[in-house]
User: Fold this.
Amino acid sequence: MSNPYNEALGATLIERSIRERIVIVGVTFPGSDDETTEASLDELAALIDTAGADVVARLIQKRDHPDHTWFVGKGKAQELRELCLEVDADTVVFDNELTPGQQYNLEKLLGRTAIDRTAVILDIFAQNAHTLEGKAQVELALLRYRLPRLRRGADAKLSQQRGGVGTRFGGGETKLEVDRRRIKTRISRLASELEELGATRSLQRQQRDRSGLAAVTIVGYTNAGKSTLLNTLTNAGVLTEDRLFATLDPTTRRLALPGGEPVLLTDTVGFVRRLPHGLVESFKSTLEVATRADYLLHVVDASAADPEGQIDAVREVLNEIDAGAVPELLVFNKIDLAGGDAKRLLDDHPGSVAVSAATGEGVDLLLQTLADRLRSISKVVELAVPYERGDVIASIHREGEVVSTTDDDGQLRVRARLSDASAGRLAEFVVGAGDP
Assistant:
């Protein structure tokens, strides 16, 4: 049996010779304004460019609520049809989520594919998924998106069978005659595969926990510079590009802080406003690295048009994956591009730091601040270690920060800051808690 992932997204694996022409549509609802809608459409345009297509026009409407049939009003839908003909658009992308019925009605009226922001983000993830787990996670999210949109029979019309953002999610490229049972079977199988991969990841996590090293996870809005920061701090060699969602797979490296104590530093997938719930659900096994971290480095693009909005969007996703309670250090990146905005952001967020991951400016302060924060949440324990147990002494130095050592009748008294995991593993040598 052929793979639905390859059928629906195989075109992402080959270079596109012709870029699709896209019209984007935004709707301003009560509680928002046109400026906010325009900013959201700017981000949608960046997403579409990342997916490999070109925005040739945009349309905005104010409404009290979405129209049940076309999302926009009937008159605006007709205006959209005329605009598509005028600019010779291949696809229409709505910044808001469309119901399957609205999508179907729009395609009948417009005579071309109509998709939403979710479909574009799924497309980008599909292009950037490289590991077995990443591909399975994207395929699962894609099939969950496609399932309620399947239509059969006389109403099923086939569009051109070519690669592109719109054609993978509407019309013929999605092969509307695909049997629902087959899709559901594939979803079930993928869920089982991800459970098995999750078990493997859990085992790896347990091995890291036994190492006793503190876990620090880098989170942030897409293209905020997370991977660049990881490379700057650890020489990780992770792919960095000036594009959205350039990396999806987590990378973990060991990092020595200024006091000598080592930590495990992990980069994660970037977030975005209204990140599709299906993607969050499918990537939970990957994103849980943030829930289990001792500290989060929340990287923010200080040069972005709306850094505060990006902070809120990241925190919203963190809350959705139950990582909202993990302590965070705000890191305002790209200060070489931000000008005076960086100082304003630092003033508005006491305790934050500013860096340029590209030039290295501010990195020393970041490391020192992180070390201080981790010390503040770690315990100082006192251990009595026989002189002949050099392996234990080495473990203490490797896994924590030694505060002091004294000789004591054939043994060494060591006061050190250790994680709970390290203190538990060395419990037979622990004789008490020391003062910080």
